[in-house]
UniProtKB/TrEMBL annotation:
SUPFAM superfamilies: Histone-fold. The lineage of its organism: Eukaryota, Viridiplantae, Streptophyta, Embryophyta, Tracheophyta. InterPro entries: CBFA_NFYB_domain, Histone-fold, Transcr_DNA_Rep_Reg. GO terms for molecular function: DNA-binding transcription factor activity, RNA polymerase II-specific; protein heterodimerization activity; RNA polymerase II cis-regulatory region sequence-specific DNA binding. PANTHER family: HISTONE-LIKE TRANSCRIPTION FACTOR CCAAT-RELATED (PTHR10252), NUCLEAR TRANSCRIPTION FACTOR Y SUBUNIT C-3-RELATED (PTHR10252:SF106). The keyword Transcription applies. GO terms for cellular component: nucleus. Keywords: DNA-binding, Nucleus, Transcription, Transcription regulation. This is Transcription factor CBF/NF-Y/archaeal histone domain-containing protein. Belongs to the NFYC/HAP5 subunit family. Its main location: nucleus. Residues 13-76 form the Transcription factor CBF/NF-Y/archaeal histone domain. It is found in: Nucleus.
Length: 100
């Protein structure tokens, strides 16, 4: 059942019009198929879920029940797949224990 949910590209919670607008922000992009924003929407949802789960782990490690900005920064710093985000995370959001 979970696999079917992952493969269901018709149900998405991000606005396709907004995704298409972002895609068209690049002047080199001329035409976008109807399926492309749907695939991007699903990819974005999966990205947000993964980052949230890793951030939540940091929240629980610190015995808190509210996910904070520094938890997201910690998840980004600790996870190689998020290396492309390191430069956009303000350094003041990272505590010494995260950088160690």
């Amino acid at each position: 059942q979970d696999i079917e949910k992952v493969m269901d590209f018709k149900n998405h919670s991000l606005p396709l019009a907004r995704i298409k607008k972002i895609m068209k922000a690049d002047e080199d992009v001329r035409m976008i198929s109807a399926e492309a924003p749907v695939v991007f929407a699903r990819a974005c949802e999966m990205f947000i879920l993964e980052l949230t789960l890793r951030s939540w782990n940091h929240t629980e490690e610190n015995k808190r029940r509210t996910l904070q900005k520094n938890d997201i920064a910690a998840a980004i710093t600790r996870t190689d797949i998020f290396d492309f985000l390191v430069d956009i995370v303000p350094r003041e959001d990272l505590k010494d224990d995260v950088l160690a």
